[in-house]
Amino acid sequence: MSRRLAERLLVFLCALAGASPAVAHPAPFSYLDVRLAGTALQGTLVLHDFDVAHELKLAAPEPLLDPATLASYEPAIKQLVIERVRMTADGRPVTWEITNVRSLPDRTAIEIAYRIPPGATIGRLTIEAILFPYDPNHQTFVNVYEGDTLTRQQVLSAARASVEYYSGGRQGALAVFKEFTGAGIHHIAIGPDHILFIVGLLLLGGSLLRLLAIVSAFTIGHSITLSLAALNIVAPPARIVEPAIALSIVYVGADNLVSAKGARDVRAWIALFFGLVHGFGFASVLREIGLPPRALGISLFSFNLGVEIGQAVLVVIVASLLSLLRSRSPIRARQVVTVASVVVTLAGAYWFVERIW
Question: Is the confidence at residue 8, as pLDDT, over 60?
Answer without folding.
Answer: no
